[in-house]
Amino acid sequence: MTNCNIIDSAFVTTIFFLLLGPIKIIPAFARLTRDTDPGFKRDLTLMGTLFATVICGVVILLAENFVAKYQLSLPAVQITGGLILLISALYSIFPRNEVEATASEPRTALQVALSPLASPVIVTPAGIAAIMVFVLLSTQISGGFQTIVTALAVVMVLNLLVMLFNSAILKIPGLMLVLQLMGTVLIVVQVALAVQVLIYGLRGVGLISGAPGVTN
Predict the structure, then answer these.
(1) CA–CA dist 40, 103 (Å, integer)
(2) Does 2 fall in a domain?
């Protein structure tokens, strides 16, 4: 990953996995589908994935319009992206007290799929911001847009599979503990990536001339 190119396939996929991916969906989907029948769970899975994908598509279109309209500079976008990733990771490390989504009120699969499943469970605010930042940066890199779309598709397929087999996943002994540990490790990785992106942006505006481990 070079100074100007953070639209790297592994990097983008990792960030989308963190912010839009399946680890956080497993417990949330279990709460939303508690005491519901298999048909409800199936409909919720399919519609939730569809709505989440549509939301991501709309965000991509909006971000492209921002590029054309505001001509945002690359360092500004890098600094913005770094701050978003850092703040999101810090919220995960030091969580706020929030009311968890539940299925206590009788609602249709369509209603639950729209909210809270598609957003904010799958498509988090930080995830939306990350998509916008990557699209803004993709205009500078050949093949950047395709990388973003591919990474999003991979993550959405993983989300679909996790919801389809959610009950079986929860029954695997020790799996949730492993996933929680993996989530913690990935949060640390996210902090490091956020700092790296901030370094790129600060170098771009001339506030720092270099940093250990950063290549030109």
Answers:
(1) 12
(2) no
Q: Which two tokens stand for residue 26?
A: 């497993």
Identify whether 211 is part of a domain.
Answer: no
Report whether 39 contacts 208 (CB < 8 A): no
Q: Could you give the number of structural domains in the chain?
A: 1
**CA 77/CA 72 separation, integer angstroms:** 7
How many CA atoms lie less than 13 Å away from 144 in the CB half-sphere? 19
**For residue 123, what are the CA distances in angstroms to 24, 50, 139?**
11, 12, 23
Q: What separation in angstroms does the CA of 133 have from each of 69, 75, 120, 148, 215? A: 15, 11, 18, 11, 22
What pLDDT digit, counting tens, does each position of 127-151 carry?
A: 998 898 888 888 777 788 999 999 9
155 assigned to some structural domain? yes
Residue 213: inside a domain: no
